[in-house]
Design a protein that fits this description.
eight-stranded antiparallel β-sheet; 8 strands; about 35% strand; single chain; alpha+beta; Pnp Oxidase, Chain A
């Protein structure tokens, strides 16, 4: 397997096996904010999560949909860490996108021993909403923090 092929396999494995991603957002003035969120991936390009619409990261997404995402295993020994980095656009889901997103999020939630989600769980007056980030760029870091674009399919 080529170096890039090995890095792509590593990135897929991290996305498949991790439960949380770090979501980077910024407010209207550009002030950054990072939040860990439980996520459900779909096809290595879409990432779904449920959050309070009043949470800082949710308010930031409403004002500025451009986000960054980092997925990594924080339990690895010092000096052996690997991560996958994504640039994405995020939004609260509605309509047909909401129904599809609920199915994706519920499938992973149930697989991890949690509850199934319904429209009533993520529509007003409920205190949670369903969000999706769609990646436009995916990369890993090589030697000396060199960005290596990867295609995960």
């Amino acid at each position: 397997m080529t170096e890039v092929g090995e890095l792509e396999a590593m990135a897929r494995n991290l996305i498949d096996s991790s439960l949380y991603m770090t979501l980077g957002t910024a407010d209207e003035a550009g002030r950054p904010w990072a939040s860990p969120v439980y996520y459900a991936p779909e096809g290595y390009r879409e990432f779904h999560w449920v959050s309070d619409p009043g949470a800082r990261h949710s308010r930031n997404i409403a004002a500025r949909p451009e986000v960054s995402i980092v997925i990594f295993d924080s339990s690895t020994p010092v000096g052996t860490g690997q991560a996958v980095y994504l640039s994405a656009a995020a939004a609260e889901l509605a309509g047909d996108d909401l129904d599809r997103g609920i199915e994706i999020f519920s499938r992973r939630s149930r697989a991890h021993g949690a509850e199934e989600w319904t429209r009533e769980d993520v529509l007003a007056p409920a205190d949670r909403r369903l969000y999706r980030a769609t990646a436009s760029e995916t990369f890993v870091l090589g030697e000396h923090d060199r960005r290596i674009p990867v295609s995960l399919g």
